[in-house]
Amino acid sequence: MLKPKRKITSKEIKRDPFLEAIFTFKEHINSKKQQYLKIGISVLSVLVLSFFINQNSKSNAKEAELMQKACKIAIQARDNHGSGSVAGSLGPLGFSYQPDKCPEIDIAAPIYETAVKQQSEFVDFHILETMSSVKQARGGLMGATSSTKPVWLAISVDDIDGSRLRSGENVKEVLPLVEEFGAQALLLNCSSPEAITKSIPLLSECRVPIGAYANGFINISDSFNKIGSTVDLLEKREDLTPVIYADFAEKWVDAGATLIGGCCEVGPAHIKELSTRWKG
Q: Which pTM does this prediction carry?
């Protein structure tokens, strides 16, 4: 017999990290994503970090449930607005910005394959984000392209030398991977807008659409290297106004980018400025 639904109390939510994650995400979607949709954004990205996978079946089931709920919340926001696409985000395993700490390809690929299976019923496409080395990108693409949905690849470059991935490899070294695995777009993400401005022209030989969505951090702190580290450790830039960000974006478009957005610390006001410029 089915039990009647009841309202979950705030105490129950706080006691269960799984429930807390769901309700935090739902609150964010309801408050922020509608703002983004109203001002012209066309893609909602859903990210559920794969920290449960490969621990045990109970944890894997919880992650699948969390992924499903996150996707449904994003779909509801999109449907309420009346247009847009939902992207299933696939973040880096191990540590963001530190590809030397990512798992080996044969370990990473099955994890991403599991994640796309959880997402594919709900999303319009998948996007591998903040891939900071060729190995990290290969592991992600090997797993993600098992999906029947399109896959986009987003790479993160060195904030000082935009011609290189955070691993030190030349940014052009990802181009053969795009062709090998059939990725349908190549983007630069979660790097400084200055670095991305240097990177975009180097991707001109790419045969699929290219794009960029920069972050608004001063830099990636050396202290961002421990399990449990969050973006609270990273300092926000105060000089990256919506107008200045859109000025950078114009340079990206001039260099061939056709997909433009914003990553961490790039908010609704920045997206509104982008939308105004290109809709005008």
A: 0.83
